Amino acid sequence: MATACSLLVLLLALCAAPSPAHGARVLTPGAVTKAQQQGGTGTASGNNATADEYLAPHNQARAAVGVAPLRWSPELASAAAKTVAQQQRQGGCAFADMGGSPYGANQGWASYRAKPGEVVASWVEQGRYYSHANNTCAAGRQCGTYTQVVWRRTAEVGCAQATCGTGATLTICLYNPHGNVQGQSPY
């Protein structure tokens, strides 16, 4: 387990998304459903995850810092599903370049079939490195996926997963409005 966690941290450092408004987190598979690929319901991956499997851990983290809960957005879930499906087909389940997106984004990659709540929990876990008092992240650490989860002005989220040919899972959550605005505190 310690080796998997070390690999997780190393891959996170290597794969962080380029824009501060978009986070990435690697964990150490669920295929996108046909409904998602066609802009359907917003349930995630082949394990038939529900919106609540994503919302519950998001909203638990937000409640812990006194921020209003997020609403599930079928439109954002559909956009996330299209993105993970594209990455599954074209990018070998690599992180998507979300730099041109109007939404905030968190991405997670796991070498196994990760559950939605587990992926969100990995993003929230970064909160231990975040100092609200001075709005900074500990040296050498990443906090962007955590701060996007708890960003006060963000009102809605939509997520999806894809299973890669290797059995790995790619998860993307999109946030509207986006967080991680430079110089602003998340809450």
TrEMBL record:
<feature type="domain" description="SCP">
    <location>
        <begin position="49"/>
        <end position="183"/>
    </location>
</feature>
<feature type="signal peptide">
    <location>
        <begin position="1"/>
        <end position="23"/>
    </location>
</feature>
<dbReference type="InterPro" id="IPR014044">
    <property type="entry name" value="CAP_dom"/>
</dbReference>
<dbReference type="InterPro" id="IPR035940">
    <property type="entry name" value="CAP_sf"/>
</dbReference>
<keyword id="KW-0732">Signal</keyword>
<protein>
    <recommendedName>
        <fullName>SCP domain-containing protein</fullName>
    </recommendedName>
</protein>
<dbReference type="InterPro" id="IPR001283">
    <property type="entry name" value="CRISP-related"/>
</dbReference>
<dbReference type="InterPro" id="IPR002413">
    <property type="entry name" value="V5_allergen-like"/>
</dbReference>
<keyword id="KW-0611">Plant defense</keyword>
<comment type="function">
    <text>Probably involved in the defense reaction of plants against pathogens.</text>
</comment>
<dbReference type="Pfam" id="PF00188">
    <property type="entry name" value="CAP"/>
</dbReference>
<keyword id="KW-0568">Pathogenesis-related protein</keyword>
